[in-house]
Specification:
Blueprint lengths: L1 E3 L5 E3 L5 E2 L4 H11 L8 H9 L7 H13 L4 E4 L2 E4 L7 H10 L3 H5 L16 H22 L4 H10 L4 H13 L3 H19 L5 H11 L23 H13 L2 E5 L6 H11 L8 E5 L9 H8 L11 H13 L4 E6 L5 H14 L3 E7 L8 E5 L16 H13 L10 H10 L4 H9 L6 H6 L4 H4 L14 H9 L4 H10 L8 H7 L5 H9 L4 E5 L2 E5 L2 H14 L2 H19 L8 H24 L3 H18 L2 H12 L7 H16 L6 H13 L2 H4 L3 H11 L3 H12 L4 H18 L2 H18 L2 H16 L4 H18 L2 H18 L2 H18 L2 H17 L3 H17 L4 H18 L3 H17 L3 H17 L3 H15 L7 H10 L9 H12 L3
Parallel strand pairs: 6-9, 6-10, 7-8, 8-9
Antiparallel strand pairs: 1-2, 2-3, 4-5, 11-12
Helix pairs in contact: 1-3, 7-8, 8-9, 8-10, 9-10, 13-14, 16-18, 22-24, 22-25, 26-27, 26-28, 27-28, 28-29, 29-30, 30-31, 30-33, 33-34, 33-35, 34-35, 35-36, 36-37, 37-38, 38-39, 39-40, 39-41, 40-41, 41-42, 41-43, 42-43, 43-44, 43-45, 44-45, 44-48, 45-46, 46-48
Length: 1010
């Protein structure tokens, strides 16, 4: 049972449950007995202390009645000397306060107070004197805390104003003011105290206060120099503001905090900065013990003693115990912070040392750094990882890794800055060096003799490159190799085996992959590597995924080569990812699509490494299986460049490849190259027939879309229809959906717009039924474009938004950006320019976050159209020029560049009143669209030419061109406000009875195209 008197009187049972004591007089009795815990109090004393000069008529019976009521909740006994409360002194907060105060544990002592002492029993005759004594003890403890702590002028002033006659308090306030350089304020306090003492008490200030006054007059109490026992900080601290705040907060709660992380992460520098900013540093109560040079556990105490600049002699076998006593003596003189740096090679001894020291010194806090935890009770871990690195973002100035590199680069090469000539190299250095501070500092040091581009080009040989560390640093911190070797040397044989084999995973791995490739039952060894900061973990859907920092992986890969195990480990690695992609590839086209994409996203670099390795080693069947297992994922995610390069490299193996694979991926290669134009018809036919003859059409569902579209782009409509029919009869429901999707293109090109829309509806329903979001999103985009041409902008926007939502689920950057910029253009066509600009801005942010220059170029085009619709001609002109430059350099957009830029330039010239230029630019666009026989696009530029002719004052030509556009597409684009204006002005064009070929020829003639 505990009794509390430092505030309202209260009682708690052993389990902490509050006990209801009863009425005021019972609480008075409890309080009086608790002031003499465990000792009998005479009945006469109790009567006097409870009732004073007016006791009740039968005082003995009244007291006995109170005791009876108190006994119901507290152990009270009658003994020869009086009544005794059966609690120990330690169970009464008054006596715990006295003990803690005597031990110098002032914060804990003062923390026991909950208000004024005996607050609810002050009417009792004994209470006033007892409360005054306790309040005096409290004030004295507060003064002692101020005397030993950091000068706090605000708190001292507030306390002084409540107790203006306390001379010690006035002296403390004077010292605090002087420490802030406020000597005149301190002298004013002295004058006030002297005057009050004379007026109210008729005395002079004490000798102690006069001494403080004299010291203040002499200027002896100015700001005290800080005793700095931390390592010299010769460079600025960059990039870890959040960690600083978190660790400082953690040190406020926990007595042992360990910064854990890999070598080179900057643990020592971070710990030093935390210690330098800690309040105890300003009071000279911070010590730093560097343990990196300590080799034997028994030398640890001696190393700490050395950091304290103390010495001790005697029997070497007794030095640890004596050293601990000396250390505890120094640290126990007040609140203290001890930094134990680099504990990993002495982790057991460091754990015992820290535990014993914390036990001996209650006011001590320990901040340790290590590559693995000390693993003791009460330890709080703070993980120290790499600095944040850019991942494709355009603006990288806010990333910690970039800030650190630029800071250190500026020190060795004044004037070095981030601009167009250096940004890409700086981004690459920060990313490839994992954002590790030591590696970045070593790389920046190379700028003394290299350009930033030369550094980037040599990162594959990073251990030779990064060797320019400080000559005053420890040997293991002067080169990147030495940093890694220090950690490597601390591993057991089993840990070394797993660590070097793990190097085959560039993207890390889950437990199943590690078990299949590296080591049976690897969990305990793997977790040990995590503990030692060789491997780290991220959690994906509740399951851990393990990975190595790239620098550690490069070193581990060297060790794998040296071990002679590389061939067998790599073989297992490639087989594992062939089997994994074989399992998951079919699911990309099902309701488990998102689950499959998550697997591919996590494993993509591993799959690519297995594929590239198999190609390089001419493991033909394995390479074919790996490409077949990941190609469709690349297309769904819009990773066209990777898909094209992998197909090209594998097809170079020629006849070594299986016939069905060779035919399929030659078809894929052709269709990727054909967009947006046509390709050689004879080769298209030959490749399609090879896919049929080899049985590829039964093996690869993607051909249900690829072959009809390839034939369509090759202008062989009959062959395209044949392949659509073949796919429509497939047993695979996804293939049947793809067939309808391809059919919608054929019908739209032929002008059967209603038939095309029915095919799209069937495609959408079937893609939705099988759960393929990619097919659904594409189809929704096509349906939105169709609806837009009817002039129903709201319905089109709704469809675009549905397509965008599906694309967001897929996390397909290409599809998200395209859906969003088409949405922006639709808003602009509707006249809602504010919404259009908002959507473009959102698309730009999304593209910028992924660093996709190709998408950024597309957005220049879309933004220019949005700006034109809003009448912002000059801004649109600048974006048109930017699009032309960027699109010309893009591998995918280069074939579009001339056509799209010409269309954009024509619109800019038209709004600017330069009708001749507008006609010339439109003629260029008509040339390219008609050459590749793209009827929907040709209809669009024909309508643009009609607008130009109308602006030139040639309404008859404008009406004829509208009629020709109607023949080519099957209808006019009434969602385009310019076309709608022409129709409103000149009426609906009369239907023509000519063929599309004749209409095309007439359009070219009108445009002046040969």
């Amino acid at each position: 049972m505990r009794v509390e008197l430092l505030g309202p009187t209260s009682v708690e049972a052993e389990d902490g449950t509050p006990v209801d004591v009863g009425g005021a007089r019972v609480r008075m009795l409890l309080a009086r007995l608790a002031l003499d815990p465990g000792r009998p109090v005479p009945t006469g004393t109790l009567v006097d202390d409870l009732w004073g000069e007016q006791p009740p008529a039968d005082a003995s019976n009244a007291l006995q009645s109170l005791v009876s009521r108190l006994r119901k909740v507290c152990p009270v006994t009658l003994e020869p000397g009086g009544y005794r409360l059966g609690v120990a002194a330690e169970d009464v907060d008054v006596f715990r306060f006295d003990r803690l105060r005597a031990a110098g544990r002032l914060d804990e002592a003062l923390g026991l107070w909950r208000g004024e002492a005996l607050a609810d029993v002050r009417e009792a005759p004994f209470a006033a004197a007892a409360a005054a004594r306790l309040e005096e003890a409290r004030l004295s403890a507060q003064e002692s805390r101020f005397a030993s702590g950091e000068p706090d002028v605000a708190a001292l002033t507030a306390m002084y104003e409540k107790h203006p006659l306390r001379e010690r308090l006035a002296g403390l306030l004077m010292r605090a003011l002087c420490a802030q350089g406020r000597q005149s304020d301190a002298l004013r306090v002295y004058a006030e105290v002297r005057e009050r003492l004379a007026e109210e008490l008729g005395v002079d200030p004490s000798r102690e206060l006069r001494d403080v006054h004299l010291a203040a007059v002499r200027g002896e109490l100015g700001p005290r120099p800080v005793v700095d026992r931390l390592p010299m900080r010769l460079t600025s601290f960059v990039g870890r503001d959040d960690e600083l705040a978190d660790i400082a907060a953690t040190l406020g709660r926990a007595r042992l905090v360990t910064l854990v992380g890999p070598g080179g992460a900057g643990k020592t520098r971070l710990a030093t900065e935390v210690a330098a900013r800690h309040p105890l540093h300003g009071r000279g109560r911070v010590w730093f013990a560097a343990l990196a040079g300590v080799r034997a556990p028994e030398d640890l105490a001696g190393a700490v003693i050395g950091a304290f600049e103390l010495t001790f002699t005697g029997d070497p076998l007794r030095r640890t115990g004596e050293g601990m006593a000396r250390i505890a003596e120094v640290l126990g003189a007040g609140e203290s912070l001890l930094v134990l740096d680099n504990c990993e090679h002495l982790v057991g001894a460091a754990a015992e040392f820290a535990t014993e020291l914390l036990r001996r010194v209650p006011n001590l806090r320990v901040l340790a750094t290590s590559r693995e935890p000390l693993a003791v009770d009460g330890e709080t871990l703070c993980q120290v990882g790499p600095l944040a690195v850019p991942n494709g973002q355009t603006d990288v100035t806010g990333f910690g890794s970039v800030r650190l590199f630029l800071d250190r680069a500026g020190a060795v090469r004044p004037g070095f800055r981030l601009d167009e000539s250096t940004a890409d190299d700086v981004r690459q250095i920060c990313r490839r060096l994992d954002g590790m501070p030591l590696a970045l500092e070593l790389a920046a040091a190379r700028l003394r003799s290299m350009t930033v581009r030369q550094i980037t080009q040599r990162l594959d040989d990073r251990f030779r490159l990064l060797t320019s560390g400080s000559r005053t640093a420890l040997p293991r911190q002067r080169t990147l190799r030495a940093v890694v070797e220090w950690s490597w040397d601390l591993l057991t044989e089993e840990e070394l085996l797993l660590a070097r084999r793990f190097a085959v995973f560039p993207a890390g791995a889950d437990l199943a992959a590690v078990e299949a490739v590296c080591l049976p039952d690897p969990l305990y060894v793997l977790t040990s590597l995590v503990e030692k900061s060789i491997v780290d973990t991220v959690e994906i859907d509740g399951e851990p995924r393990y990975r190595m920092l790239e620098t550690i992986r490069v070193y581990a890969d060297e060790q794998l080569t040296a071990s002679g195990e590389r061939r067998e480990v790599v073989a297992r690695f490639r087989r594992y990812y062939r089997d994994l992609t074989a399992r998951w590839e079919p699911l990309i086209r099902t309701a488990r699509q998102l689950e499959a994409i998550e697997v591919y996203e996590a494993e993509q670099d591993n799959v690519l490494a297995a594929l590239r390795g198999a190609i390089d080693d001419r493991e033909v069947e394995l390479a074919a299986d790996l490409l077949g297992g990941t190609f469709w994922y690349w297309l769904v995610k819009g990773d066209n460049e990777r898909a094209e390069s992998s197909v090209r490299d594998l097809l170079e193996l020629g006849d070594l490849l299986p016939a069905d694979f060779r035919a399929t991926f030659r078809a894929m290669q052709l269709i990727m190259a054909a967009v947006p134009g046509v390709t050689d018809g004879d080769e298209v036919t030959a490749v399609i027939e090879s896919c049929v003859a080899s049985g590829a059409v039964e093996k690869y569902p993607s051909l249900s879309i690829a072959l009809p579209m390839l034939a369509f782009l090759g202008q062989n409509t009959e062959l395209a229809r044949r392949e659509v029919r073949r796919a429509q009869e497939s047993a695979d429901p996804w293939a049947r959906a793809g067939a309808e999707w391809a059919m919608s293109f054929i019908l739209a090109d032929e002008g059967d717009l209603e038939g095309a829309e029915r095919a799209r509806d069937r495609a959408y329903d079937r893609f939705t039924a099988v759960g393929d979001r990619w097919g659904s999103a594409m189809t929704l985009g096509m349906k939105a474009a169709f609806v837009s041409q009817t002039g129903d902008h709201q319905a089109a926007i709704e469809l675009y938004r549905r397509g965008l939502a599906v694309a967001m689920e897929l996390r397909s950057q290409d599809d998200v950006v395209q859906q969003r910029w088409r949405l922006a253009v639709e808003y602009a066509r509707m006249g809602d320019h504010e919404a259009a600009e908002r959507e473009i801005a959102g698309a730009e942010d999304f593209a910028r976050s992924g660093g996709n220059d190709q998408l950024s170029a597309l957005l220049d085009y879309a933004k220019a159209e949005v700006l034109l619709r809003a009448g912002k001609v000059e801004q649109a002109r600048a974006l048109s020029e930017a699009f032309r430059r960027r699109a010309t350099m893009s591998s995918l957009l280069s074939s579009f560049a001339e056509e799209w830029a010409a269309t954009l330039d024509a619109r800019v010239a038209l709004v600017g009143g330069r009708f001749g230029d507008a006609a010339a630019f439109t003629a260029t666009a008509i040339t390219t669209t008609s050459d590749r026989a793209d009827m929907p696009d040709l209809a669009g530029v024909t309508e643009l030419l009609a607008v130009v002719r109308d602006a030139e004052g040639r309404p008859d030509a404008a009406r004829r061109l509208l009629a020709l556009a109607q023949v080519i597409r099957g209808r006019l684009d009434l969602g385009d406000p310019d076309v709608r204006r022409l129709v409103d002005t000149h009426g609906e064009p009369e239907p023509l009875t000519i063929t599309k070929t004749e209409a095309l020829r007439e359009v070219r003639a009108e445009a002046g195209v040969d």
